[in-house]
Design goal:
The complex is a heterodimer.
Chain A: E1 4-7, E2 10-13, E3 19-25, E4 31-38, E5 42-49, E6 56-57, E7 64-68, E8 74-78, E9 87-94, E10 106-107, E11 111-115
Parallel strand pairs in A: 2-11
Antiparallel strand pairs in A: 1-3, 3-8, 4-5, 4-9, 5-6, 7-8, 9-10, 9-11
Chain B: E1 4-7, E2 10-14, E3 19-25, E4 32-38, E5 45-51, E6 56-59, E7 62-67, E8 72-77, E9 86-93, E10 100-102, E11 106-111
The chains are: A mainly beta, B mainly beta.
């Protein structure tokens, strides 16, 4: 049981390049999330998916797109990377759909992205 | 949406002393308040959580208290040890579905 798995662990991009961050969970959770973490800013929600086939914007969605490929996988895409997207990205999943704010999030190990 | 404020941003205590981190939230309907610990270079991990039907919860050296009227909750760590050094985040419901809105974190430093 690996929990939440993210790839890659590290990535360096040039401005304007694109890439996809991958996330998969093996806990049969319905809800999945992408957060970014910047120094002094805490964790901010980019996008989330309450169930397979649905996605919604979070607090900071600009410059990103997501795909909920199936129940296990939730990917985050940067179409044209910018230096402001330099951050640590965390994927998370939640076990109890439909009960707002009543269940813990399980985080992956993160992807450290640098855009030059 | 929910707004979570966390204080202090940095807290330095002597080993063996107690540490207290405080958070306030804005949405009176919020009913779940977790605390996460993040060690350097690692992922955030849940250490304790509390639901709005109780005022306090303890787990060994850590405890969380909740004051719904004042809309604030606090993390208490007693008999601090070097391994308690980390960044701690409070959170409250927000961000859609079962998502959470996080405070900006407290860097806890345990001085030997």
């Amino acid at each position: 049981n690996a929990g939440v798995t993210q790839t890659p662990k590290f990535q360096v991009l040039k401005t304007g390049q694109s890439m996809t961050l991958q996330c998969a969970q093996d806990m049969n959770h319905n809800s999945m999330y992408w957060y970014r973490q910047d120094p002094g800013m805490g964790l901010r929600l980019i996008y989330y998916s309450a169930s397979e086939g649905t996605t919604d914007k979070g607090e900071v969605p600009n410059g990103y797109n997501v795909s909920r490929l199936n129940k296990r996988e939730f990917s985050l895409r940067l179409e044209s990377a910018a230096p402001s997207q330099t951050s640590v990205y965390f994927c998370a999943s939640s076990p109890r759909p439909g009960i707002v704010g009543n269940s813990p999030l399980h985080f992956g190990n993160g992807t450290r992205l640098t855009v030059t | 949406g929910e707004n979570v404020e966390q204080h202090p941003s940095t807290l330095s205590v002597q080993e063996g002393d107690s540490a207290v981190i405080k958070c306030t939230y804005s949405d009176s309907a919020s009913n779940y308040f977790p605390w996460y610990k993040q060690e350097l270079g690692k992922r955030p991990q849940l250490i304790i959580d509390i639901r709005s039907n109780v005022g306090e919860k303890k787990d060994q050296r850590i405890a969380v208290t909740l004051n719904k009227t004042a809309k604030h909750f606090s993390l208490h760590i007693t008999e601090t040890q070097p391994e308690d050094s980390a960044v701690y985040f409070c959170a409250a419901p927000g961000g859609g579905a079962d998502g959470l809105t996080f405070g900006k974190g407290t860097h806890l430093i345990i001085q030997p």
